[in-house]
Here is the input.
Amino acid sequence: HATNHSKGCGGVMRVAPVGMLFASLHASHGRDKETALREAFEVGCASAALTHGHVTGQYASGAFAALLFLVLTGTSLAQSVPPVLDLLTACPDNEETRDIINRAVQLACMGPPCHARLSQLGEGWIGEEALAIGLYAALSATDFESGVVLAVNHDGDSDSTGLIAGHLLGAMHGFSAIPERWRVSLELRTVLEEMAERLALCGHCASKGSTGMQAP
Here is the structure.
């Protein structure tokens, strides 16, 4: 584990495949959902810990992986928040992460999305703020495009918050919800789609004795 005190958002940004992996394993193996959820959270935290030594950055990463796992396995985003908060409650020094997730949910319940509310969650440079901004955008937006646009139009770490919102909204609405004009010009689109398909199917491959995860 890293020995620094960083809680930058990089750990959160890279952890989405963890949630996808455990969703695929759950779908193919029929393993207990509560156990798979806890494992997704723990592996998400461990992934961030490789480079970010502050527990808040680790917890935000684990929470993001767990949220994605739940949404990808059929739970609505709003209903996914309480079990993730329960996981955090069992961890020491969880207050920063829990408090800002709760704040994001409260703001999303206050009416149509707006930048004034989003700004109350910080600028997204640190893990828990980036997660909260992405979560607020995904909870309050009516569709994929408006949620991502909301998440990137602020004065902070907008690429990171847009990524987090996009992952959540994509898990909620599916590939077809991404505007075609965004897909057409996407760099390395074929590679990204192939990697996403392999993640979605890796649980089935693992059950046959192979991960199927060779490099493209």
Summary: The longest helix spans residues 189-207. Confidence is low (pLDDT under 50) at residues 210-216. The CA atoms of residues 145 and 178 lie 7 Å apart. The chain is about 70% helix and 0% strand.
